[in-house]
Amino acid sequence: MRFRTAVLIGGAAAVLIAFPASAPAASCKKPVGLRFDRKAGRAVGKLSWTKPRHGRYRVYRNHRVVGQTLGRSINIAVKPGRKYVFEVRAMARNGGLAGCAARLRQRMRFYPPFRPRGLAVRNVTQRSAVLEWGRARPGDGVLQGYRIYRSGKVYKQVKRLSAHVRLGGATTYSFAVAAADTRGHVGARTRTLYVVRGHRPPGRPGNLGVGRVTDSEVDLSWTAARAGSSRVIGYRIYRNGELLGQPRGLSGTATNLAPATPYGFTVAAIDSAGYLSPPIGPADVQTAMPAPTEGKAHVFLLATTDESFRDLRRHYRQIGTVYPTYFACGSDGSVKGNDDALVTRWSQLRKIEVMPRFDCQRPDVLHLILTDGRTRSAVISRLVAVVRDQGYQGINLDFEAGYSTDRDAFTHFVGELARRLHKIGAKLALEVSAKYPGFETSRSAFYDYPNLGVFADYVFVMNWGWHWITSSPGAPDDLYRFTKVADYAASMPNRSKYILGMPMFGIDWPNGGGAANRGTPLEFSDVVGQLAALGVTPAYDPTQGGNHYGYREANGTYHDVWYTNAATVGLRMQMAKARGLGIGLWRLGREDPQIWDNPLIAPGAP
Description:
- The structure is a single chain.
- The protein is of the alpha+beta class.
- It has 4 domains: 25-107, Sandwich (Immunoglobulin-like); 117-196, Immunoglobulins (Immunoglobulin-like), CATH 2.60.40; 206-286, Immunoglobulin-like, CATH 2.60.40.10; 297-504 and 564-601, TIM Barrel.
- The protein is 17% helix and 35% strand.
- The chain has 9 helices and 36 strands.
- An 8-stranded parallel barrel has the order 22-23-26-27-28-29-30-36, surrounded by 7 helices. It has a 5-stranded antiparallel beta sheet with strand order 32-31-35-34-33. A 4-stranded antiparallel beta sheet has the order 4-3-6-7, with no helix packed on it.
- Helix 3 (363-371) crosses helix 4 and helix 5 runs parallel beside helix 6.
- The radius of gyration is 29 Å and the shape is globular.
- The protein starts with 34 loop residues before the first strand and ends in a 20-residue tail after the last strand.
């Protein structure tokens, strides 16, 4: 099921390739304005260029290919402190590399920790005081602690967000704080705070009250504090003793809270000199449970992609089951991967079924798992243990490219795994390639639809790939074949178990496509940007049930683009509904947002 996207982040698996013979330099335009930008703490940055506006480019990092794109930017994984050579080469109309390229040499800056927030002082006596500050954001390293400076010199380093400091016989002392990481990098210091003998701090605020409480926010209010030696400039809100924020007025909201979690909130006044009052509180509050999902849609999520999780959070009320990509098979058939606790707990608190995807698309490895008794037993036991130990609602098998001769072995594997999962109250989902009576490929022959439906709880039918990267141009979910597959799935004895999978992507083919003119996958947002830049109007093909348009590059190369949107996906949702099949989507990310306006997947829709 994994669909290769236009942007591939290079890593250890990248391969060194030799440049093929180049076309004449006049056949392409060299990319202009190459630059690479990366934010602190990010393992990925963006390589971009300003011109030309259109074209296909292959991108290299230190002479290794990292991806191919139709746009003017690409995300690339890098490591801070290292030197890199980035190269962008235009592609010729025949799919090979053209003769022009742009290069950029750059050393990745290592970012130190950010500046701590809001240095303040409390509990000042003749001999000591307590300094406190807000948590600093880490840079590229691991935060180790906070370095305290007294009168410009290092005084000590602590791990917490507060520290006792000694005072001597002087009238005034100056303090500042900076964050330090484990590699010895020290960030910028806070503003200087002066501790002056005889300064009177503000009085305690009064009447701390709790207002609105949701699953992620709590409203607080209080009455004004009496000023001391300096005017009161605000009030600090603390959550379990840690600084959250500093509003100016007599109310504030604590945000980004975990649902169904107890918290203690306190509030202290602060004056213009940085002196804190004694706190009022705590006010003990438990956040509410989030509204549970009312959705039924089955969706795939790339857990390593931020946009996938943001999409889940936006539309969770319409989603019943999520398949996050957590696990994959090793070359020895072992189960590799890890849970993403944030995604799992967030989903489960909202009553979404979490059934992580176990992805294996290597024929020889699949043969080993299915036919070698020891490997088979180990994989089944490991998957059951993962479900039990992590509290998942089940597991998802994405076994693709298996040998057709292993069809029965796969069915038996599914039956054994399903029985083991059902004993612990868990479910089994799996993917099958699309087929129908009279049409079966070597790939889809691996799947025994009727018998798989006997054992599995969900059978997700990947009803796409009718046109693919190396085929001629056309709708990936061609309507004629899509309908045939839907009818076949609906003829199964347990048809309610079958989920009709729908794609939410497009493909751009040059020169009529084919093996020599590979297409480039597009997200819907890529299509929108391309349409705006080209000024073309797409058309709808009623036979294939897809949207398409064409354009010509400056060098004369013609392109065909086919893509899905809310209208085409909505039509296929209607087909699933009419046949009593479930609705499945590949995958959460940058799809047409209007897909989620369809009443067939509205919260509470049957």
